Batch of 4 targets.
Target 1
Amino acid sequence: MASMRKKSRGDNLVLRYAILGAWALVCLLPVLWFLSIGLRPRTEIITPQPIYWPTFSLDAWHMIWSDWPMARYLRNSVLAIIGSVLIDLVLAIPAAYSLSRYTYRGRDDIGFYILSTRMMAPAIVAIPIFFLFRNAGLLDTIWALMLIYAAINLSFVTWIIRSYMLDIPKELEDAARTDGASDLRILWEIIIPAILPGIITASVIAMIFAINEFLFTLLIASTSQAYTMSVALANFTGGSDGVIYNAIALVAFLAFVPVFIVVVAIQKHLSRGLTMGAVKG
Amino acid sequence: MARIELADIQKKFGLVWGVRDVNIDIADEEFIVFLGPSGCGKTTTMRMIAGLEEPTEGEIRMDGEVMNDIDARDRDVAMVFQGYALYPNMTIYENIRFPLRMRGVPRAEQDALVRQAAGLVELTDYLDRKPQALSGGQRQRAALARAIVRQPQVFLMDEPLSNLDAKLRQAMRVQIKHIQRQLRITTVYVTHDQIEAMTLADRIVIMQSGAVQQIGTPDQIYNDPANTFVAGFIGAPPMNLIAGRLADGTFTAPGLRVTGLPERRGGKVTLGIRPEDCHVTVGADHLQGIVFGVEPTGETTYLTVKAGEKLVEVKADRDFRADLDTPVAVGFDTTRLYLFDTASGDRLR
Amino acid sequence: MGETSLSGTGAARSAPARPATSRLRRRPRWLKTAFPYLLVAPAVIYLMLITLYPGIYAIIQSFYAVKFGPWQPVGFANYVRLWGDYQFWGALWNTLVIGSIALTLQCVLALLLAFFAYRDPWVRGWRIVFLLPMLFMPSAVAFIFKLSFLDARVVSDLLIRVGLIDGNLAIQSSVWMSRGLLILADVWQWTPFLFIIFVAALQGQDEEVEEAARLDGASWPAIFWNISLPMMKPVIAVALILRGIDITTMFTNVFIITKGGPAFGTETISYFIYRTGFRFFDFGYASAASVIMLILTILIAQFVVKRAFVSARS
C-alpha cells in the first residue's frame, strides 16, 4: 500500500488547491465588490435588482474631497495615530527593557498587569474616560484620540518589544557593561538598534489597531472637528439620503492601500507581533 | 598591572550554591585558567571578578582595593565571551572603538588605538565589515581586539575558543598566549577543555560543584593530582581509576593485583594509573583481562581491556592489534601509581 | 609606531585608555535597586490612569443614579436592577453565543487552511491573499456587509439566482439570521488573524520530527493530528484568547449592522453598556454593568490568560 502512494506526499493536491482556491475567492470577491461599489454612481447602489456590472463613476471621489472636509479627517487620523505610536514607544521601550533585562520583586506581576489591560473591554472604561476627557476639556480634540489610542496599544507594544528584547543574548549586554557602558547607554546603543524590526512591527500593528478603533473615537470625537476616517465613515449618512455607501467603500479602499503595503513589508514579523511575541514567526 | 584576590567567596542562587569557599590569589601578569565541567562555578567566579555578579559573601580585591560594590563598567577589566558578543549593528571598527568611546578616550586618539589593536590580531582589512560578514575565527579575533584596545588591568576570557573548530582553536591558543605575554596583562581564562588549560596556564584552578579542587601549575596538576576528580579530569584519555582493597601493601581488584606498595592504612582504596604508564606484556602481570576494543590513532594505539566489570585504558605500541575477547596481560609502571581513599576521593600520601 | 606602542611596555602603560589614578566610582545602591522600577513606572502610571482610574470611577458611579441631574446615592439599587434585567442577561447570553460560534468557526477554518497551506510552495502568496479581509477598517467592512445583506439584498439575490431559496431572506426580522450575519462578518474578517499565526507556528516546528514520523509510515493528516496539533496547543491557546477578547467586546459590527436588533437578539454586552450610557444617559446603571464585566474580565485574565501566556513562552 505504501509503495502505491509513493508520489503523493501523503496529501491530496486536488483537495488542497480546491480548498485554498475556494478561500482565496472568499477573500478576493468581496474585495472586488467593495471596489465596484466605490467606483459606481449612487443611483446604482440600492436598486430593486442588485447591479453587478455598474457604470464606472468617480462620483464618490469628488464627493469625499469636495462635499466633506476629508483632508481634515485624514490629517486628524494621521496626527492622532502617529502621535499615539510615538507615545507608546517612549513608554514601552523602557518598560520592556525593565521587564526583559532585570530581576526584581514584582516584575512578573507588573508585566502581567500591563498585559491584562489589553483584556479590558473599551465599553467598560468608556464612561469614566468620557467624563475624564470632558472635565479636562479634551473632548473633540485629536489630543484625546492620541492619548486613548496610545493607552489601547501600550500593552501590545510593550509585550512585542519585550519579546524581541528577550531574544538578545545576555552576553551582548555584559560585554557592553564591561566595556564601560551605563544601562541607558546599553539600551540606546546596543538594544534598540538590535531590535529595530520588533519596534517597527509593534508600531505597524499599533497603527492598524488605532485606525480600526471605533467606540472611543465615536464617543470622544462627536463633532467633525476631530473626526477621523473611521468615524467619519459612520457619519457618511448625508441626512435624508441614507448611508452613502460608495463614499464609504472608496475611503475604506484608500485607507487599505498604505496598510497593505506596510503589512506586506513586515510580513515575516506579523505573526509574532499579533500574538504579542508568543509565537516566533 | 593588577593582582586579584578572591577571599572566602560564596555565591548562592536562591537556595543553590553556585560557588563556595573560593580563595585564590592571582599574581600580577599571571595567566590563570579555571578548569572544570559545566556548572562547576568557574564562569560564575569569573563574572564576579568582572562585576557582572555580586558575591553573596567574601571579598574581591584588585591591587588591595575591595571591588565588591564597584559596577562592572567602573572596573578596569575587559571580557571576551564564548559567543563573542560583538555588537551586530556596528562595524568591526565601531565594535573595537566602543570601549574607548564609553571610557571617554579623546576622539583624536581613538583611531590610532583601534588600528593598533586590529593590527595585533590581523583584522585591519575587515574593519568596515559587520560581524555577520565575518567567519567564526575572525569574529573571535575581533572580540579579542575589542578587549585589548583599551589596555585593561585584567583580561577575562569565558570559553573564548569553544565555538571554533579544532584546527582554528589550536592557532588561536597560540595567538592568545602570545598577546598575553606581550601585553603582560593579568588574565583569567575559563574553559572546560583540559588541553587549553594545560597549554595556556601559568596556574590552573580546577573546580567542581562550586568548590576549588586543586590549584597548581600544569605539571603539578598532571603529576600530583589532589584527588580522584582532578586525576580523572586531566589527561586524554584520562587516568584509569580502579576501586579495590589494600591490605599488607597489596592492592587487589577483580583481575588485578599489585604488590609491594608502601605499607599504609588498608581498606577501600582506589588505584590510579595513566594509560601511558601501562604496557602490554606477555604472560601474567599486574592486570589480567580480555581485549574489549582497539583504537589505532596513527600515532599510537589505545587498547581497552576488560577486567571483571571494569574497563581499563592502555596505551600500546602503534602497531599493536588484537582480536576481541583474546586474553591480555598489562603491566604498570609502579613508580607512577596513585592511591586514593575510595570514600572521600582524596589522595593517600 | 604601529604595533609597538601597544606591545612596548612603556607606551602601553601610559596608554590613554587607562584612568590615570584609580579613583573608583561608587554609585549609590538605592539607584541600582530602583532603576528597573523607574524604567517601568511611566508605562504603568499611564495604564493605571486609563484602567485603574476608570475602574474606580465606575465602581463609585455604580452606586449612584446619574441621570442628567446631580448624582443621587442609591446603594445597590443599580445592581439589584441588573439582576432582574432580562436585557442585561440577554446581552450576556448573546455575547456568549455569537462569540463562541464565531470563534469555533474561525479556529477550525484557520486550522484547515493552515494545514493545507503551510507546506505549499506558494505559501507566501496564499498568506497575502488570505490577509486581505483583515486589512480593511472594521467599520467599513461592517457597512459593506450591511449593504450586501440588508440594504441592497445582494446575497438574497445571488442565492435566488443559484436556486437555493425562492424569496428574499428576511434577515432583519430573524434573530438567528441576524446573529449569523454578525458571525459571518467576524469570521470573514478575522479568520486571517488565526491563519497567519497558525501557519507561522506550523512552519516553526521542527521538520525532523515530522520526517521521522513520515519514515514511521504516518500520513500527513495523521502527523498533523498526532504531532503538529498537540505541539501547537500553547500557540492556539494564545491566539484564541486574543481573538476571544476582541469577539466578546464586539461593538462596531453591532453598532453598524444590527443596532442590537431584532428584539435585542444581537445586543452584546458592550452595546448594552453603550446604549444604557450614551443613548439613555443612565450612567450609574451602565457603570454597574461595566463593573460586572470588569470582574468577569479580571477573573478570566487571572485564571486563563496568565496560564496560557506562561506556557506559550516556555
Target 2
Amino acid sequence: MDKDQREYVRQYIRPGIAVVKDPRYPHPFLIHVPMLNLPQDVSDDKVLEHLSMRAHDLYHPSEVAQVKEAIRMHRGIPAEAVALLPSRNAPGDQPEHTVNNESRPGSSTASVKGKSFVGSDCGMPGDRSTKSAAGFGSGTSSLSDRARRVCTVWLNLEYPFLTEGEIFAKAGVTAGSMKGQIKKELVRMGMIVEHELQCGKGRMNVWEPTDKLWSELG
Amino acid sequence: MPLVIMVEKRNFRGLMGVSDDLVVIPWRFYRDNILRPPPRVGIKQWENIMAQLLTGLYLLYPSRSLLLEYIENLYQSHGFTGQSDQSCPNLRLLFEREIRGHKYKAVSHFERYRENLESRVAGILRHCGEIFDCDYGIDLVRMLETNVVLEMDGLAREMKELITTLLLTRIFMYRLATSERTNRLKTIVMIDEGQDIFRRQSELQEAPSYLATLIAQARQMECAICVGAQQCRDLTFSLMSNTAFKIGTGFVDLRDLDEFCRIV
C-alpha cells in the first residue's frame, strides 16, 4: 500500500470493519464483517455421539469399532448400553430400539444401572404415544395434518437443527403459500418460537420447538 | 466445497447446527498412521518425506538418514510394499522395534543420533500416542469429501505443528498423485490461531520448516489454505509471501496495522 492508502485504512478501520486486499486490484477495500451468532453450548457428549455415528464415513472399516470403543469409554457409557444407542451408518443395521416410550419423539433413552443415555436417532415418523394419538386430527386445538407432518419429519430427523427453508424442503413443502400457512398455524398455536439468524447480509429463520409441540407429537 | 478446519479452541462446534454434514473430531479421536503413505503415493517417496518432516520438526537434521534407515528396515521386516490392503507398521512399532532395538557404541555419533530420535519420538508417543497408534487412520479420501473440524485444544505446539503438517502433506501428496492439474479448487483448509504453527520467530531462528515448502506449493495442489491469527506480525514470511488475499480486522495497535499495510 502506498502512503495515501495506508492513511485511508488508518482512518476508517474500526471494530466491525475489515480491510481486504485482493491482488487483482491496486487498492484495498473496506467491508463490514457480518456477525454470525453460532450456538456455543455444544457439549462434548453431543460432539462425540455425532462422531460415533459418522465413524463409518471417516475411519477405515477395520478401525471403526476401535474408535467407537474409545469414544464410549471417554463418554463413560457402560458397554451394555452400546447396543441400545443409535448408530446411523452401519450398513444393514436394524432399526433402533425405543426402550422408554415416555421420551421425546426423535430421541431414545436407554437406562442402564441407574444412568440414562439419550440418543437422537430413534422414534420413527408415525410413532405416537397414546396421549397424542387420542387428539390426532380431531378438535380445534390440535394441529392440522400438514403442519403435523412437517413437524413430525422435522423432529424425527437425526439432527433437527435446520433453518425454516430446510425443514420445508425435508418435508417436501414447496408452495410458498402453504409454507406461510403452516408457519402461521404453528406460531399461533404456540408450537414453535421463531428466531432470526444472521447469515452474511441476509437472515435465516430458525424454529425452536416448544414443550407444547413435543407433547402434541407425543 | 469440503472444508477442513483445524482449530485450537472449541468455538467451531456451533457449525454443527448449520451443516448436517459437519463432523467435529477432538484430537483424541483423530487417527493417522504416520508411516502409511496416502493412496497412490509410493513408499520410497513417503519415507523420505516422513524422515524430513520428523527430523525437521525437532531440528534433528543429522539424524535424518538414520531415521530413514530405520523406516526402510521396518517396512522390509514387516513386508509392507505400499499396497493399501496390507498391514502397515506404525510409529510405536518404529519406536519399539527399530529406534530402541538398535544399540551402538556409547560414545559414537550414531548412538547420539539414536538417543535424540528416541527421546523425541517417545515425546510424541507420550503426548498423543493414541493418534499414531493405528494401522490405517482416518480415510483421507472420505475426509476430503466431508466437512471436518479438527479440535486441537490442549496439545503442545510441536504436536499441533506435526499433525497440521502431516495432514497438509497427505492432502498435497494425494492431490499430486491423483490430480489432473485442472486449476480448480477442491479443498479448503482453515487453520485458526495460525501463529502457533506459522511462527515468525521460528522461521528467523531456525531453518525453514517442511510446512513452508508445502505452503509454497499449495496453489498448485488445488487446495486453498486460510490462516487466522491475532497479529499478522507473528506470522511467517513464507506464509505472507504465498498468500494472495489478506483480510485484516480488529487491529490492536498501529504497529500491527503498519505491518499489514506493509505486506499487502
Target 3
Amino acid sequence: MTGFRKALLVLVVLAVGGALVYVNLTFERATGPEVEVEAVERRSLQAIVSASGTIVPQLTVDISADTMGRVTRLAFNEGDRVARGQFLMEIDPETLRSAVDRGEASLRASRSSQRQLEVAIDTARVNLQLARDNLVRQENLWELRLVSREAYERALTDVTLRETELRAREVDVETQRERISQEEANLTSARYDLTKVTITSPFAGVVTRRNIEEGETVVIGTMNNAGTVLATIADLSVLEAEVEVDETDIPSVELGQTAEVTIDALPDQIFTGIVTEIGNSPIQATQGAGTQATNFKVVVTLDDEIPSVRPGFTCTADITTAVRTDALAIPIQAATVREVVLDANGEVVHQEAAPRRGVTPGVSAAARVDGRARRNDAAKELEGVFVARQGKAVFLPVKTGIAGDRYFEALSGVTEGDLIIVGPFSEVRNLEDGDEIRVVDPDAGASGGGGLFGGFRRAGGGAESR
Amino acid sequence: MTDTTEPDSHGNVARRASGRDMGLIGRLVGVIVAPRRTFEVVVRHPRWLGVLLVVALFIAGASSWLVSTELGQQMLLEQQVSAMESFGITVSEEMYAQLTRRLASAVYFTAGGVLLSIPLVTLVIAGVVWTVGYVVFGAGASFRAMYAVVAHAGAVNIVQQLFVVPLNYARGAMGNPTTAGAFFPMLEEGTFAARTLGLIYLFVVWQLFVLSIGVAVLYGRRTGPIAVVFYLLYAVIAVGGGFALSRMGG
C-alpha cells in the first residue's frame, strides 16, 4: 500500500469517525411519546345530569272491588281506551239487590206502624178529654157533697192515668219515627252497596292492565290481605319520566330545568320535558359487588303525548342543569391531576425533565423513573391539563366550571388557542411536566407514512407544527 | 516487513515464510494498521489466548465502567425501558422499581456477560467460518489457526470501545452510536429503513473486512470474494432483522 493510499485511508477513517461524532451529538433523535393535541376554543357548553328510570303516566289508578262476588259482566279489554264513567264490569248484584228490597219492605212496615201509633195517640187524647170532663163533674158534685170522696179521687186519678197514656203513645210515635229513619238509612246503604257492583272508569284513559275474567270471584281487601286489583287505568295524556339521580348530582337539579328524554324502546327519538318533582327521600340501590348507591327520585314531565309509549318503558333523562355560551372549553379526556410545586405567589414551578446529557447533581438514576423527578415536600396535587409547547408537555393547573358532554368549562389556567394534549389516554396518564413529546397530526394518519421503508419524521414535531 | 503474498496462476495467494514473530501488543496494533502482515504472523504462529483475554477484559472494563457511573445507570435504565416499550410492554411502577433495584448489580452482570460471551461468540464464528472454509477450500487450515484469526479480528472491538464509550457518555445515551442509521436522523423510528440501518454497525463492517483478510491469508485466497460473501451475509441479516423488528416493535 502506497503512502498516498494509506494517508487517504486514514483520512476516510477520520472523516467517518468525525461524522459519527457530529451526527450523534448534533442530530438528537426526537424522543418522547406521540400525542394528539386540540386547540382551546370557545364553545357553548351545557352541564348535563343523566339518569335512567321508567316512563309512568302522571295519573294511574288501580281499580279494586268494594264488594265481594262473582263477576257477571265484563265490558273491557287491556289496552282499551275508556271514557270517564264508562261501564267496565258488574259483580253479581242479587244479594245486594235483595238487601235493598228487604230494606224497602221494612221501611214500609215501619211507616205503617207509625200510622197505627198516631191513631193510638188520638185515642189517648180522646180518653184524656173524657177523663178531664168527668173530673170537672166530680169536683162540682164533691163540693155539694153529692158524691163520695172516693168517686172524686178516682176521677182525678183517671185524668192522670190518661195523660200518662197519651205521653206513652207520643213516645211510641217518636220511637217509630226514629226507627223509620234507621230503616231509611239502611235502605240508602243497601242501595249504595248495590251501586258498588257496577264498576265504571273514574277518568278517561287507557286500560293498562286487566287482571280479571268474567266468572271469577273478587274479594275485597282487608288490613293484612290486599284485595283483588281488577284493572289499572292510566291517563296517558300526561307522561312522566321517573328517574333516579345520583346523590352527587342532585344538588344541581332544580325544578323547572329542561330535560331531554330518550326511551330505549323508541330509538332515534328525543322527547322534551321539565323537572317537576325532586325527591327528598333517598333511594338505596344496590350496585355491583354489593355496593350501595344513594339516589333520589326526580320526575320529568314530558311536554308532548307519545302515542306508542307504554308505562314502564325504560328511559334516560338528560337534565340540563347549567348552560354557558362562549366559554373556554377543554376536552374532558385531557383533564388530569398532577403533583406540582407552587412558589410563594402560588404559581407553578415547572419541573424540567432530567436532561439527557451529562450528570445531573441531585438527580440519581434511581430517583429518575422514566424522566420523572422526585417531588419535594412542597408539592400539591392540582387538576389541570398538559399543553404542547416547543416539543414539551407543560402542565397548567386549570380551574374548571361546568362539565359538558365532551368539554369542561375552563375558568382559568388556559387561554384560547393553547394546544391541549388530549391523547392517547395512556400517554396523558403518564405524562409529567417538561416531558418531551411528539405531536401527531391527526390528518396525516397514525402511522406517519406507510410502505416498507416508512416515512420521514417531521422536523421539530412540537406545538409549532400546527 | 513487506507484503509477503502474491497470487499464483490460479488466483490463489501463496504464503511466503517470514522469520519474524510479533508480540501481543504488536499483533493487536497490527490488526488495526497492517492486518494482512499481522495475520500472516498469526497464521504461522496461531496464538489466541492472550489476545482474547485482552479484548474481553478491555471491553468488559469499558462497558462496566460506563454502567458504574451515575449517568451510565440512568442511561441503562432508559434503554431498558425504551426497549420494553418499543415491544409494546407497558412498564408499570413496580417494574420500574425492579429495574432500578437491579442497577446496582448491572456492573457485575455487564462485565460477566462480556467475559463469558466474547470467547463463546468467537468460538461460534470460528466454527462456522472454519466449517464453510473446510467445505469450500478444503482442509488447508487448522481450527486453532481459524480461532486465532477470529480472536485477533476482535481487536477492532477495542477501537470501537475507545470510540463509543466516550461518545455515549457525552451524548447521554446507551445505544450504539456507530450504526449507519446515525447518518439518517430524519428517518422515523421503528420503520423498516431505520431498523435495518440501525443494525449495520460500522465497526462490524470494519471487523468483517479484517476477518476477510485473515481468512484469505489462512486459506491463501484473495480477500475480495471472501469479503463480498461476508458483507452479503451481513446485509441479509440486517435486512431480515430490520424487517422483523419493524414488524414486532411497531
Target 4
Amino acid sequence: MFEKVLVANRGEIAIRILRALRELGIASVAIYSEADRSSRHVRQADEAYLIGPPAPGESYLKIDRIVDLAGRIGAEAIHPGYGFLAENAGFARACEDAGLVFIGPSSETIALVGDKMQARKTMVAAGIPVVPGGDRPLSSDDEIEAEADRIGFPVMLKAAAGGGGKGMRAIHSKDELAAAAKAARSEAGSAFADDRIYLEKLIENPRHVEFQIIADAHGNVVHLGERECSIQRRHQKLVEESPSTALTKSLRAKMGEAAVKAAKASGYVNAGTIEFLLDGNREFYFLEVNARLQVEHPVTELVTGIDLVREQLRVAAGEELSFGQLDVFHRGSAIECRICAEDPENNFYPSTGLIERLREPAGPGVRVESGIHAGFEVPIYYDPLVSKLLTWAPTREQAIERMKRALSEYNIEGIKTTIPFHKAVMESEAFRTGEFDTSYVDEVFFPMYAGREMPLPEVAAIAAALVRESEREEAKPLAVADAGATRGGWRQSPESRTWGGWQLHLK
Amino acid sequence: MKYQVEIADEKFELEVEETDGGTKVRMGDETKPADLVRIGRSPVYSLILGDKSFEVSVHRKDRIYQVVLEGSAYDARVMDERALKLVAAGGGEKELKGEIMNAPMPGIVVGIAVQVGDEVEPGQGVVTLEAMKMENELKCSAAGVVKAIKVEMGQGVTQGEELIVIE
C-alpha cells in the first residue's frame, strides 16, 4: 500500500478522500488555491501546499505544478477526485510518465472512453446495446441530413468529445437541422477544442440509470448495482438513489452484466460508472463511461456497505479486489440530495458569501459529505456543490421520510441553498411513486415549484417581528412605549395573509 | 407595536402586544401567545407560538432579517409603525424603481452588452456575470436610456453592487 498520497481536489470530495487515507494510515497531502487557505480540506490533511491563485486554470488545473509537487514531496500516488483533472488523459499520462500512480483508469482508457464515438464503437464490438446512430463525424449539412433520414426523426446531435450537455441538441424536424448543427459545432469547439459532431436517435423521456463498476489490475471486474439519476435540472443531477424504481431483478442482472462487459472492453481498472438510458419499453442503451469516482458514489456505499475510495486505493496499489461479484449484497434504500449554493427562489443564481452558522443533520441513517464550515466564505470560483446529504433506510418510503427529516434539520445560514427545493422534490407525488424521467424536473416539477408558496412564511414573519421587538426592548421598556398604541384602525391590506392560511400550514 | 413584514412579494401585518399573561401576536383577527427565547448568545431562537414549537435562526443585515426555519431561508423586511408612517408621509424609504441595476449575486463581469446612451427595453440582457462556472445574463426591468456603466469587463462584484444606471 502507498505511504503518501496527494489529493488533487478541494471541497467535499477532497475531504472524503482524506478520510479514507486517514483510515488506511496513509499520509495525506492537500493542495489549495489562494481562495481555499481556510478551507476544511487543508486542515484535514497531514500536509498542505499552496498551488496558485483562485482561478482553477491557475491552480487546481495546473498539471505541471501538481505533478512536480507530488514528486518533490515524495507522494507515490495522486487521487484526482471528480471534476478538475479527473478525466484528463493528459494528466493521467503526466502522472504515469513521472512514475506516479494515478488513482483511476489508465490514460489510454480515459482517452478511449472520453471520445464518445470511439466509446460507441468499442461497445458495439462488445455486443452492448447503444443508441441507434452514426459512428462517424458529420461535416456537411447534406451529410447530416442524410444521416438523420437514415436514423429517423427525432434525433440528437452530440459532440464527439462531449459531456455535461455541451454541444447537445435535440432535433425534431428537418428544418431545424442546419441551425442546430452550427450551434452544436461552435459550442463543442469552444468547450472541448474539438468540433466533431455526430447523430444519434433521440430517446424521448428516458430514465438515466448508471452502474457502478470497480476493477483491479488482475482482471477482476465487479459491478455494485445501479444508481437512479433521472432527477435532473438542465442535464445536472440533483437527486440520486439506489435501487431504481424502474428496474426489475432480471433487468438489473442484464444491465449489470453489460456494465461489466463495457468495463472489460475498455480495459478499465479502478472505479468507474457506466451510464445507460432506459426508454419507456424498459430497453436500455449504453450512454457513456464516467472514468472517475462519481459525486453520487456514497449512494452505492450505503446500500452495499463497500468503501469505494478505500477499494480504489487498494486496486491502485496493485492489490486484488477484496470481494467478488457474489459477495456484493444490496440492502435497503439510499437517497442523495446535492446541496448547492444556489438560490432556488431567485432563478438558481449562485449564492456565495459567508456561512454564518451551520448545523448539520444527524441521527439514524443520515450521512453528510460536506466541504463547508461556519465562518467559511464560499468562493465564486468553483462548483456550487457545497455538500451532499444522504439517507439510508430499510425501505424507500422510510428513506424519503428520513430525508425530509434530515433536510429540515439542516441549517446553512448566511447563503441560500437548494435545501428547500429538495424538500419539495421529496414531497412531490412523482418522486414518491417513483414515476419520473429525465424531463420531470424541467417540464413538470420546476414550473410548479416556481409558482409555489414558501411553506411557513407567516411564522418567519412573526419571528422577524419578535426579534425586532426584542431589540427595541433592549433600548427601552416596551410596556410603556406601546401603551395606548395597540388600539384603533389597524386593517389588513387585501394582499396580506391571515391566520386562516397560516393555521393550515401548521396542521 | 404594529409591524409590516415583507417576505418575497407578500406583506404580513401583525401586532405584538405585551400583556400580564406574556407576549401576544395578533395577525388578522386572531391572537396567539408567543414566547421567543434566544439560545445563549447564538442567533438561534426557540419560538413557541400558540402550542406550536419552532426553532428559528435570525441574522440581521441592515433592515433585512434572514430567518432560517426548517431548512428554508426567508428574507424578511421588517417595518414598524413609525417607519411605515414615514413612508406614508413620503419621506422614508428611497425608491429606486429599477433605475439602478444591482448585482443579484457576486461574480465576475464577463459581458456588457450596452453602452452609455443606448436605449434599453425591459427584459433586455445587459450584463453577464460569471460565478461558480456558470454565466448568468442579467436583464433590465425598466425601459430607458443607459446613463452610466459602473463596472468593467473582468471586474469582480459583490452582491448588491451597482452595475448600470438607467434613466
